[in-house]
Amino acid sequence: MTSDTYDKNNVTGMSSGAPAVLRYSAFTDDPEGGNPAGVVLDASALDDAAMLAIAAEVGYSETAFVTAGDASARRFQVRYFSPLAEVAFCGHATVALAVALAEQLGAGDLLFDTPVGEIPVATAIDPADGTARATLTSVPAHSRAAAPRELDATLEALHWSVDDLDAALPPHVAFGGNEHLVLAAASRSRLADLDYDFDGLADVMRRHGWTTVHLVWRESPYLFHARDPFPVGGVVEDPATGAAAAAFGGYLRTLGLITAPSTIGIRQGEDMGRPSDLRIDVSAEDGRVRVTGGAVPIG
Predict the structure, then answer these.
(1) Using CA atoms, how far apart are residues 167 and 105, in angstroms rounded to an integer?
(2) Which residues, 6 or more positions from 30, have their beta carbon under 8 angstroms from its beta carbon?
(3) Are 44 and 9 contacting, i.e. CB atoms less than 8 angstroms apart?
(4) Which ranges in the chain are annotated with CATH 3.10.310.10?
(5) What architecture (CATH level 2) is domain 3-137?
(6) Homologous superfamily assigned to 142-297
(7) Torsion angles phi and psi, residue 167, rounded to 5
(8) In sequence order, what DSSP letters do the residues of 58-73 get, joined into one string?
(9) Within 13 Å, how many C-alpha atoms sit on residue 103's CB side?
(10) Is 118 a known active-site residue?
(11) Which residues, listed in sequence order, are joined to residue 70 by a DSSP beta bridge?
(12) Residue-by-residue pLDDT tens, the chain, 299 positions
């Protein structure tokens, strides 16, 4: 669907004027946890420079902008900006945006047209307490083994060694809308001790086109802990990374660790004081990964 199909003057039924910036924290039910995201429900009058300026002022790892849409069809054109640059896809901002729309339009299915393609999102609101959750369905996710030069440069910037890695979970470059290097730590203490070369890692990531480095530790086959350095976005670390979670689902399937439909929990943000819970549903056949989480307004 092209942007011309949308009613650009009535993205969500909001009045015209300076766009409001909503703030939500995704993958949590506590505003003090999760990953904060900015949400602009009517960005139809904004150009790239204006969206980048707003994202920089908000200061979160990403802000989602609805640039066009049809509220009656529940279909919207969405772009994502970090404080430094546009990002092709962002999971936590997608969840935040979906919850914001569900609160305005009611629960149900949404469709987001993003730079990486169509992203269906199902939303639900708990009638007991009014909390909202969203499940995004990624583009087909996959992964490949990391090249030695990719791994060596990353380990140097992280101040890690090969001995710090879990040999059972090999380094891969995984894709679920954008690319992330997946590195599995051999211990929880190694994951907790993160003190990396910000500029050095950013250089490596820009060279290879990675959005984050997805560092994980396997507590059990169905529960992983994660941390995601994001220096290319001007952010030291993401408290919850839905796009990386989708890519990680593709990684698990590529390695043959998913042979039947499975639900995996990812605990992220604990080591930076913003605990987040992400759920991914992965099947052996379907190339797409479903990422579920809640979101709550901040302030």
Answers:
(1) 47
(2) 296
(3) yes
(4) 3-137, 142-297
(5) Roll (3.10)
(6) Diaminopimelate Epimerase; Chain A, domain 1 (3.10.310.10)
(7) -65, -20
(8) H-SS-EEEEEEEETTT
(9) 19
(10) no
(11) 75
(12) 334 444 544 555 444 567 999 999 999 999 999 999 999 999 999 999 999 999 999 999 999 999 999 999 999 999 999 999 999 999 999 999 999 999 999 999 999 999 999 999 999 999 888 889 999 999 999 999 999 999 999 999 999 999 999 999 999 999 999 999 999 999 999 999 999 999 999 999 999 999 999 999 999 999 999 999 999 999 999 999 999 999 999 999 999 999 899 999 999 999 999 999 999 999 877 899 999 999 999 98
Calculate ∠ Cα 26-242-213, nearest 5°: 120
Please provide the DSSP assignment of 193-221 as one string.
-----HHHHHHHHHHHTEEEEEEEEEEET
Q: Of 32, 57, 62, 86, which one is the catalytic site residue?
A: 62
* Separation of alpha carbons 64 and 47, rounded Å: 14
Structure-token pair, residue 149: 């030069």
Task: Write out the H or E segment, with its range, that includes residue 40.
Answer: strand 35-40
| Residue from 58, 34, 66 nearest 233 by CA | 58
Tokens of 245: 């979670």
**Three-class SS state of 103:** helix
Closest CA to 269 of 232, 244, 299: 244
Angle of helix 242-254 relative to helix 91-105, nearest 10 degrees, comes to 120
Cα–Cα separations (whole angstroms), residue 244 to 69, 104, 228: 26, 28, 8
25 — phi, psi (to 5°)? Answer: -110, 125
